[in-house]
Amino acid sequence: MYNIILAKSALELIPEEIKDKIKKSRVYKYDILDSNYHYRAMEELIDKRMRGRPDIVHISLLNILDSPINHERKLNIYVHTYDDKVLKINPEVRLPRNYFRFLGVMEDVLKGKRNPLIKMEEKSLEELLNDINAKKIALMTKQGKLTHPKLLKEYDTFIIGGFPYGKLKIDKDKVLGDIEEIAIYDKGLMAWTVCGIICYTLSF
Ligand code: SAH
Q1: Is the pLDDT at 25 greater than 90, yes or no?
Q2: I want to staple 203 with a disulfide (CB 3.0 to 4.6 A). Which of 69, 155, 192, 196 is the partner?
Q3: How far does the centroid of ligand 1 lie from the alpha carbon of residue 53, in Å?
Q4: Is 79 among the domain residues?
Q5: Atom of ligand 1 nearest to the CA of 161
């Protein structure tokens, strides 16, 4: 089994401190932060450039779920969010293809409503790595050691940042497993592309 983790993902409920700046519209009626619709309200928010991009999680999960390695049932899939929630995604879940329907599902899960195929827990990335007993961890980043994808099979756990800008920070001292910083290309790629490349190469 391999573990794939979208980390510090830009998926969260609208934070308390900007709630009063946001009016629900007929187009966007969700309680999930989306920088496309909440751009103004997000101006004062810390780390605003790495937050409010649920579409990154949506497209990444669609890519992961339909990869051959997932059809072989060899993946544990996790989404860790900016505010330290962890969603364990059942490999057989049929996620909505439509973005707004996806938001509807995620809103219920983040609000604590029970979903048999998506389980939510409050947990840091470091706690998650220890709980799942991750041993050889590939922390994916364009600044890492350039590595041919066929060598990725040597790792048991892959961490991809589920956000558009910035670098993933991780407290290595708190993690029991071995962490290596790995690049698969010398330029920045979108999270969903990196997820796709990892999942497809693991199958063959
Ligand atoms: N573009 C920025 C951050 C966001 S990209 C950067 O790479 O610094 C989202 C995630 O995709 C990153 O956190 C990283 O995990 C992964 N990623 C992007 N480009 C990569 C590359 N060339 N090699 C490995 N992982 C990469």
Answers
A1: no
A2: 69
A3: 15
A4: yes
A5: 13
